[in-house]
Design a protein that fits this description.
With 243 residues, this protein is α+β, with helices and mostly antiparallel strands. Helix content is 46%, strand content 10%. Strands 1-4-3-2 form a 4-stranded mixed β-sheet, with no helix packed on it. Strand 3 and strand 4 form a beta hairpin. Helix 3 crosses helix 5, helix 5 packs across helix 9 and helix 8 runs antiparallel to helix 9. The relative contact order is 0.14.
Amino acid sequence: MKLSLLIATLLLPLTLWAKVPNEDDILRKTMDAASPYYFTSLMMRYNNLEPLNAEEYHYLYYGYAYQDSYNPTAVNSASEQLYASLMSLNTESNDAREMNHIISLCNQSLMNDPFNTTALNMLVFAYGKLGDKEKEQAYAHHHKGILDTIKSSGDGRSEKYPLHILMFSHAVDVLSSMGLESKRPEIISRTVQYIPLCETLRLPDGKVKGFYFDYSRIYRKKPAAAPTKKRTWQFNNLGVKEY
């Protein structure tokens, strides 16, 4: 999808497309074993690299907030190793050993954050380099599905209609996927952070200087604290692969 179309889609009037997470609905459907959105079943399909539809990604992503394994404030050492490795990654290389090392780090990172879009994007890249088209496309579908889920949760242009995230890093990833460079996040309330853009977006209906994100799920059971360091899956000009 072209950058202009990505931005236009995100900035459509809220009432036309937004699917703001309904906590009661998500909890009821993801905990019901008879529901098509039962979390355990969705996660099993997700881990088996089965393609999900928009509704299934929605309940999977936001349903994760109610799982015991959801620990957004835990240190993800695998992710830190992955970020460090990507800073020196030669994107033109076809070295199988290097690609397998990236895949290993990505899989370890996903154990603590199954929706880490940096890891998902790098799995697309690594499997593409290895010539495994099946896994390349499967991870590309997951990567797009998670980003689209977040983008469809609000318009992000006001504190009233923020985009809803499960990890602070996911907010930066959304902006990076649109080719938008951001500054340091600012906590403006107990539930919402604001991320200013390095360059103001000039649109037909006005200017956009930044985006709002609801981070309330991260500290639902813990006191509020500063967000994690800014991260992005864009390394060495490596962008999202399209299908």
